[in-house]
Amino acid sequence: MGLTMIQKILAKAAGTSSPEPGEIVEARIDTAMIHDATGAPVVAAFREIGRSRVWDPDRVLILFDHSIPAPTESAAWLQKILREFATEQGIQNLDIKAGVCHQVMPEEGWVYPGAVVVGTDSHTCTHGAFGAFGTGIGSTEMAAVFVTGKLWFRVPESIKIIVDGSFPRGVFAKDLILYLCGKLTAEGASYKSIEFAGPAVEKMSISERMTLCNMAIEMGAKAGMIEPNEVVLEFVRSRARHPFEVIKADPDAYYSETVAVDVSDLEPQVACPTQVDNVKPLREVAGLLINQAFLGSCTNGRLDDLHAAAKVLEGRKVHPHVRLLVVPASAQVYRRAMEDGTLRILSEAGAVICNPGCGPCFGGHQGLMAEGERCIASSNRNFKGRMGKGSEVYLASPASVAAAAVVGQIVDPREFFA
Q1: What is the pLDDT of residues 393-402, one digit of tens each?
Q2: Residues 6 or more apart from 84 whose CB is under 8 A from it?
Q3: Are residues 320 and 201 in the same domain?
Q4: Overall pTM > 0.85
Q5: Which residues constitute the domain of residue 317?
Q6: Is 358 labelled a binding residue?
Q7: In total, how many domains does the chain have?
Q8: Both 253 and 284 in a single domain?
């Protein structure tokens, strides 16, 4: 029996031959990331262990993205702890302005095929879009990584999702992953790796692949992974900080489940409060009034996403009762959107353009809501109180977010792409 992608990557990182699902392995870590919302507890746990130096400062990355610039004194204090720790440890890879960690890491070459990437953030699974094993870990686990450069994993079983067909106009990868979240449910892939494959995935852009892998965690998965094609490899070759090896699943690999989806008839989807797997066809909630629209996050804050929104918003105005917040995922995305005129289109339509970062996604700052208000967002979670106590969050594609911002209510975005 052959091996899946994650079995092969963990085998290489652990120096073993063919680990079986359920087996415990100790794997070498290629990249370890902490950010301003989770980093201080890692530093505290590291000091409690008693070691004086991290195992390899060149493989540790500290990013400020959740609350930047610091909106509170406590946020500023946590960031100060990380600045001082970076100086003490000789960690040069400290960035306070680049943007969302999961966007910045591949842009800066920290993610590449076959790598084992850990971060103190659950959406580290995004990096499977580059053929890496990316997963979120806890603060004490990261402290152990800082000391040893290794971490144990239970080898996951894998689910294969085969996607066929071509997306209709106005339907996107975000609609697909929302549909899959509804189909598999929030626990349907618990501690499993999801491999996305098939003709439709092969044709996807890097941005779309990242959207799929980003929300694997919303189905309970340990990782979401896609075999890199030549487009991905071209992106990685000019950036990768270390040599890499492309790792693919064997043709006879075992999967605990195989799911087939044809996107040719897929329609826009929306995840309704207060669970990500509470997914419905968007038409079922069309007409619902909104107060806020949020375009951004590690799921859908990339240039492709801004372009989709700009297509809807060009020559139109945001509804007077709606606040449209646009938070580019990174400084690179921000600059490119500024250079190609996308930010001008969004701004002229009435959007508020914020600095790169996580923004209101996790309820930190840059646009929280009051009780009783409703937001449609391109982000990845809609839990109770996520963006403000007593408020509601509906998850949808960037096009659906932009369309709702124009009309003032949830509306099918396909009419803007006719």
Answers
A1: 999 999 999 9
A2: none
A3: no
A4: yes
A5: 271-417
A6: yes
A7: 2
A8: no
